[in-house]
């Protein structure tokens, strides 16, 4: 990594549960990479998920991050305050004919592909191509309420690549490894993919450090950066932490939540020390 004062990274926690050791390690890596080059670190609160979002989780999340010793440039960026920016990006994608409205349910999609889907939170089953409107079908206008699901039409068969700063070269083919993905949800909010891309572009993030579960999302986001005419940042996907049984840590691993560790008397210094020795 080149030494640079212009490095801009971000921590982007979702306030949907208590943070666990895996999140903390990814954030620590992000903070270390920014610190090593004298760069800037922002904190983005990914609080668009109205169903799981809880105010007390926001407070707990910030408190836990501060307890661990993280610092960031103020002000904190809250996605829920940035809807006009996401709407403008949606309008741009619409004007470019890059998206289409989708009335299919998740059930329709799963029935059509005839297979159970085991992706993570931010992953989606491959959208059946037969559900797409024809390329030359006129696009309905964006309504004021935006109470429609909109999907990005991926360039079928195009192979995308990027050089991951942690994992090395990454490759995926649109339409085969991932399909047309949601950019806007009919409950009036952007998808994670759109909000994240718009923010990383708008905040001029130079390197995204996040968990390796999001590698596939990165390909979707690369398509969005391109469609929005914004340069893509570098990516560093941190290998996921596993529990003793080899299962990926998740918010349900309460015993490894920062709150539980703290209650047991574990100190921030002890936690950070384990990160220094864990393979990254
Ligand atoms: N809030 C997202 C998550 O926790 C952020 C992912 C990202 O860093 O892009 O999964």
Give an account of the 3D structure.
The chain is of the alpha/beta class. The protein folds into two domains: 8-81 and 241-280, Rossmann fold (3-Layer(aba) Sandwich), CATH 3.40.50; 82-195, Glutamyl-tRNA Synthetase, domain 3. The protein is 32% helix and 19% strand. It contains eight helices and eleven strands. The chain has helices at 21-36, 55-67, 83-95, 106-113, 192-202, 215-227, 258-263, 268-277; strands spanning 8-11, 40-45, 73-78, 99-102, 149-152, 159-164, 168-173, 181-185, 189-190, 207-211, 234-238. The chain has a four-stranded antiparallel β-sheet. It has a three-stranded parallel β-sheet with strand order 1-2-3. Strands 6-7 form a two-stranded antiparallel sheet. β2 (40-45), α2 and β3 (73-78) form a beta-alpha-beta unit. α5 (192-202) packs across α6 (215-227). The longest helix has 16 residues, at 21-36. The mean pLDDT is 91. The chain binds glutamic acid (GLU). Residues 12-14, 46, 122, 196, 210, 214 line the site of glutamic acid.
Lay out the secondary structure.
Blueprint: E1 8-11, H1 21-36, E2 40-45, H2 55-67, E3 73-78, H3 83-95, E4 99-102, H4 106-113, E5 149-152, E6 159-164, E7 168-173, E8 181-185, E9 189-190, H5 192-202, E10 207-211, H6 215-227, E11 234-238, H7 258-263, H8 268-277
Parallel strand pairs: 1-2, 2-3, 10-11
Antiparallel strand pairs: 4-5, 5-8, 6-7, 8-9
Helix pairs in contact: 5-6
Glutamic acid (GLU) binds at residues 12-14, 46, 122, 196, 210, 214.
């Amino acid at each position: 990594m080149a030494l640079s004062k212009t490095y801009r990274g971000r921590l982007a926690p979702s306030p949907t549960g208590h943070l666990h050791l895996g999140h903390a390690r990814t954030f620590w890596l992000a903070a270390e990479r920014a610190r090593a080059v004298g760069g800037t670190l922002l904190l983005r609160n990914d609080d668009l998920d109205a169903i799981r979002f809880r105010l007390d989780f926001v407070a707990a999340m910030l408190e836990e991050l501060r307890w661990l010793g993280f610092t960031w440039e103020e002000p904190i960026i809250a996605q829920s305050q940035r809807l006009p920016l996401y709407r403008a990006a949606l309008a741009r994608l619409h004007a470019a004919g890059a998206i289409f409205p989708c009335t299919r349910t998740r059930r329709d999609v799963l029935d059509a592909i005839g297979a159970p889907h085991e992706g993570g939170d931010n992953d989606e089953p491959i959208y059946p191509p037969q559900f797409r409107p024809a390329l030359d079908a006129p696009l309905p206008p964006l309504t004021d309420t935006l109470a429609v699901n909109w999907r990005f039409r991926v360039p079928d068969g195009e192979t995308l690549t990027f050089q991951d700063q942690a994992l090395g070269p990454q490759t995926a083919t649109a339409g085969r490894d991932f399909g047309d993905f949601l950019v806007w949800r009919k409950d009036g909010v952007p998808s994670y993919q759109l909000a994240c891309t718009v923010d990383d572009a708008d905040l001029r993030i130079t390197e995204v450090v996040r968990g390796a579960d999001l590698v596939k999302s990165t390909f979707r986001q690369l398509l969005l950066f391109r469609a929005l005419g914004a340069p893509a940042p570098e990516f560093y996907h941190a290998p996921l932490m596993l529990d003793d049984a080899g299962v990926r840590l998740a918010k349900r691993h309460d015993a490894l939540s920062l709150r539980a560790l703290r209650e047991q008397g574990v100190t921030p210094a002890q936690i950070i020390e384990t990160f220094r020795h864990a393979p990254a």
